[in-house]
Each structure stands twice: as C-alpha cells, then as structure tokens.
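Quiz preparation item.
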C-alpha cells in the first residue's frame, strides 16, 4: 500500500502551478479569436524528431539481446514477430533474409553491431507517432536492401550518431520517416521511395541518389556564416552543401543529392549564427531556443513570401530575401521560457525544464505536432490546432479553450495532459504512467431564472495502465460574475461524463445577470482541474407570466398545441416573429410572419423568445 501511495505522489502534477496557470487563463477568457489557416499552407507535413542523441534504456527481461555472446548472429528467414525491444551489441548481428519481420518495439544497434535486411518486409507496430525507432551509435551499421517497410501509418524515427552508418538501397517506405544524423555518422540512400526527412549536424556525411520525396534539414551552428540560395524546383541534380561552397563557412557536414525528385529544404539557424537565404523556397524554418533565456515571438505566419525579412531574435541573424517560408517550427530546450503569440506555425516541441506558452495562435500541423517532454510545462490557450498533441517524460501540458480540428491526443510515459473547455475529435489516450484529465462546461450560454437549468459538459479522466490513481468525482459550483464565493451545486458525482449533462442548476430566486458555473474534476490522488463558463440569466423564467411581456399580445397564446402547424398558425395570428428554443436553449427554428416554412418539431417542451428576450413556454403534443 505504501508503494502505491509513494508512486501516486511521484506521478502527481504540481497542483499549485496548474492552479496559477488556470487562474491566469480565466482572467483572459474574453481573448481574441484564434488565427485561421495561412494562405498556401502545406498539408500534410511532418516535423523533426527531438533534436537529441539516441537514447536506449537498458534491456529488460522482455527485450531481445544479440551480441552478449561473442560472434552471435540471429538469422531471420520467413515469419518473425516479437513484442519488445531488440538490442544488438558488441559484434552481434541481426540479419533478415527474405523475412516477414514484425516488431512492436525499437531496434538499438551499438558498438560494432549490425542490423542487415535483404529482400524482406519490415513492419513496426506503432499506435502513435514516433512510438518506435531504429538507432545506430558507436561504430554500428544499419543496412537494408531490396526491402519494404511499414510503420503502421505513423511517422517512424531513425538515428545515427558517433561513427555509425545507415545505408538504404532499393527500399520502398509505406510511411514517413524522420531521421537525425550527428557527430561523424554516415548516411547513404539510393533508389528509396518516400525517403522522408533527414537532419544533418556535426561532421556527418549524407548522400542521396535517385530518391523520392526528400526533406533535408540543415543545422547552422554558432559562428557559422551562410549566404546561400537553394535550387529552384523539386528535381535536384548535383547538389552539394558543405564549407567548400562559396558563401558557406562554419558547418562540418557534407550533403550530396543527385537525380532525385520532390526534394525540399529546411533551415535551422542556431544562436550565434549568421544565415541569409536568397531566392529560395524553404519548406520549413526551425527556430531552436536553448539555455535559460526568455524569448517572445509573435507574428509568424506560414506560407508567406518575404521580399526582405529578418527574424526578430537578437541572438542570431536570420534573413530571407525573395524567399517563401512555408512553415515555421519552434523547439525549446534546457530551461528557457518562450512566449508565442498571434502566430500561424507548423510545430512546437518543448524539451528540458522550460516553460512555453502559446496564446491566440494556430498550429496548422504542416510542420508536425505539439509536444512536451522532459519536465517541460507547455500551455496552449485560446488557440487552434490541426495536428497531433503528445506529452512525454514528466512534462505537463495544459490546453485551455483550444479547438483541435484534426489529430490525436497522446499522454505517454509519466506525463500529464490537461484539457479545459476544449474541442477535439478524438478522446485522449494515456499509456504507461501518464494521465489525461478533461474538464469542460459547454452550455448553455443563456438560461432563465426560476428554472432547473441543465449544465452540459465533460468530466473525464484517462490513465495509463501503470498509473495508480483513478477518477474520483466531479463537483459543480456557481457564483455571480465578480463574486468571490462559490456555492455548491449538488453533491459529488462519481461517474465520468463526456459531452453530456453534468447536473441541473436551480435558478429560483436569482436575479438576471451573468453567472459563472464551474466543474472540478478530482482523481483519487487528490489533484484536480477546473473549467468554468459564463451563463447569462434572462429576465423572464420558465414560470413567467407571458401576459406581462410586451413582446406577446394581451390575448396570450395557449400553452398546449396539438402539433407544430397549429402552433405556427397561432403565432402568425399574434403578428409576432419568435425564436423557438428546445429545453437546452438550442435554437430549432423561427415562427411568425415572414419566417418561412414551419420547422419540424418533435413532441415536447419548447420556448418562444420575443424581441426583448422574454419567454413563453409551450408544449407540442404530436409530430
């Protein structure tokens, strides 16, 4: 029991930090609407992997280790299926020959290990983007020839570090790959379909021959000075980028591209660099922020053509002239603080222990996704997203008043994902020891006093299979706008609710005006999140006398009508045009002179609202 309590304490998020964040967001509730789609934005797009060196956890009892015995080789021919990671170490060899290879895990090749595949099908079972990877470090080698790959419809990742090499020849990829080459790694791709994106740093060497759909990223490090024009068009022959090229100094890598199609370019100008790009089309510009500094950025817009633009960051010079930037991506590391506002961008990832805030912006997904990792704190408020959202490590991500139109929500490892008054197409999925909590009050916008008002919304929790806490309850409360005292609205509710009625608010005895109704979602560890909404109480309630309403004639309408046609006839005789609302306050039609055809009304209770918002209650008996 004590171990469960300790684990719950370790996995809980910082409640006071979250409360301060939500209070700050609540004060800004009347914020400007989120930005729209940028003209000419590309879709779909992909974003680079965490710009980190490959890391492999030590093997577990569920993993397969090849090479712990000198000279060990695992030869796979025919069908092979395994759930777990494969570690190829020392001089071990994983060799596929005519294999149907299926793996729900990673392959990590270290030391002088080799991962060779010939005339094989390689399927990696993924349930989210970047779930699995193939990494090579030290002097290891990954060599695939005449192979077909399948990453289950999600972006896959590859790493090459130190003196490792990756060689792909005559490989057909079914899904997109994001790969990083660093240190002294060597990369060679020849006749590869859907080559993916490759990031180059350090003293690496990359060569691409007869490949299709290739995006190359170039890190421009501190002290580099690059004045360059990328080739026009997407068919490339004889391209070279290294420090021997006129106008380029301070980079250690060399990239060559020949006889390739659908080639795109991406630049990452780091702090201390001087980069001037002229007369080019950049698929992506990646802005990397490191250290402990604070950075404020606003006004980035995807898909714009820039006659002459200088990125407003004092620690680097990045200038584009006569150049189109299709996507802006942002990456925060270490303990920096980033404030992004009023922008349309493609991807943002927060790593390390930083705090990143996004306000009144739109992540259109053309560069990838939104991500928090490490111990970072990511806040997205009053914004829109058309991309996946993923949390990793022990990070905390808060989405508040965010409309996600496309994509998934994934909470992984020991992270927490909090959604407050958000719209999203798919329920969050939590794995490992992660937690996802959702709180929302979605309606109504208006109600009447002397009534029992249904409060609609969500109180929901998803936890990974190893997380010890569960959903405990949700609580409703209300107060007049500007008041400091919250009043409970009913008892604790111990059943989760998703986009349905949370409870009923008795408005008898209340005056007209604006009130706040909130829902607090609590888990068994004691942490909670809260969402609130303003509801305006109208001056006439359900029980109001319609004869006192100047919008309704003295010869008042009857209360019960046989069907919608008889109701329509009575309203037309009154000479008034009235709105028809259902019990939840949703508008279902208009009745009266000049209002068109009678709406189809199912049997039940309705409210007719006059020009001054006074209300008359009616009942329709038959269809």
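Solution:
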């Amino acid at each position: 029991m004590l171990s469960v309590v300790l684990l719950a304490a370790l996995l809980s998020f910082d409640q006071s930090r979250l409360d301060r964040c939500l209070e700050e967001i609540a004060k800004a509730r009347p914020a400007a609407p989120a930005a729209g789609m940028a003209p000419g934005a590309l879709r779909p797009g992909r974003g680079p992997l965490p710009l980190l060196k490959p890391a492999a956890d030590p093997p577990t009892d569920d993993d397969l280790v090849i090479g712990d015995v000198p000279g060990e080789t695992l030869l796979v021919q025919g069908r092979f299926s395994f759930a777990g990671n494969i570690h190829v170490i020392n001089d071990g060899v994983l060799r596929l020959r005519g294999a149907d290879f299926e793996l729900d895990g990673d392959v990590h090749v270290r030391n002088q290990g080799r991962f060779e595949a010939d005339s094989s099908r390689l399927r990696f079972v993924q349930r989210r983007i970047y779930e699995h990877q193939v990494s090579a470090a030290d002097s290891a080698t990954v060599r695939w020839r005449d192979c077909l790959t399948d990453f289950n419809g999600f972006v896959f990742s590859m790493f090459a570090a130190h003196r490792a090499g990756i060689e792909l020849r005559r490989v057909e990829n079914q899904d997109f790959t994001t790969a990083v080459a660093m240190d002294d790694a060597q990369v060679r791709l020849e006749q590869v379909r859907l080559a993916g994106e490759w990031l180059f740093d350090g003293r690496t060497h990359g060569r691409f021959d007869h490949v299709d759909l290739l995006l190359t990223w170039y890190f421009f490090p501190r002290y580099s000075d690059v004045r360059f024009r990328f080739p026009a068009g997407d068919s490339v022959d004889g391209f070279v980028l290294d420090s021997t090229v006129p106008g380029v100094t301070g980079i250690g890598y060399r990239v060559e591209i020949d006889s390739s199609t659908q080639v795109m370019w991406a630049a990452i100008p780091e702090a201390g660099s001087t980069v001037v790009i002229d007369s080019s089309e950049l698929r992506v510009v990646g802005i990397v922020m490191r250290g402990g500094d604070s950075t404020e950025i606003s006004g980035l817009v995807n898909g714009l053509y820039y006659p002459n633009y200088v990125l407003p960051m004092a620690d680097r010079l990045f200038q584009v002239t006569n150049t189109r930037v299709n996507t802006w991506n942002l990456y925060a590391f270490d303990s920096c603080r980033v404030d992004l506002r009023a922008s349309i961008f493609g991807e943002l990832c927060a790593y390390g222990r930083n705090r990143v805030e996004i306000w009144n912006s739109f992540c259109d997904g053309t560069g990838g996704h939104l991500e928090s990792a490490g111990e970072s704190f990511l806040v997205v408020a009053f914004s829109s997203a058309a991309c996946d959202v993923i949390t990793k490590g022990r990070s905390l991500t808060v989405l508040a008043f965010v409309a996600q139109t496309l994509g998934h929500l994934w909470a992984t490892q020991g992270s927490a994902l909090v959604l407050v008054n958000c719209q999203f197409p798919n329920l969050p999925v939590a794995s490992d020891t992660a937690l996802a909590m959702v709180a929302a009050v979605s309606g109504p916008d208006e109600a009447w006093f002397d009534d029992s008002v249904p409060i609609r919304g969500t109180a929901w929790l998803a936890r990974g299979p190893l997380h010890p806490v569960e959903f405990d309850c949700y609580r409703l409360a209300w107060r007049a706008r500007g008041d400091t005292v919250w009043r409970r609205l009913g008892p604790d509710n111990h059943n989760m609710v998703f986009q349905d009625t949370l409870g009923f608010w008795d408005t008898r005895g209340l005056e007209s005006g604006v009130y706040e109704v909130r829902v607090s979602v609590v888990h068994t560890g004691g942490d909670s999140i809260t969402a609130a909404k303003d509801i305006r109480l109208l001056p006439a309630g359900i029980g109001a006398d319609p004869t006192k309403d100047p919008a309704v004639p003295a010869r008042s309408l009857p209360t019960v009508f046989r069907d919608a046609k008889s109701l329509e006839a009575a309203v037309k005789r009154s000479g008034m045009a009235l709105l028809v609302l259902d019990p939840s306050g949703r508008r279902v039609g208009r009745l009266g002179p000049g209002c068109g055809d009678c709406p189809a009304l199912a049997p039940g209770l309705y409210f007719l609202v006059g020009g001054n918002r006074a209300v008359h209650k009616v009942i329709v008996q038959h269809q």
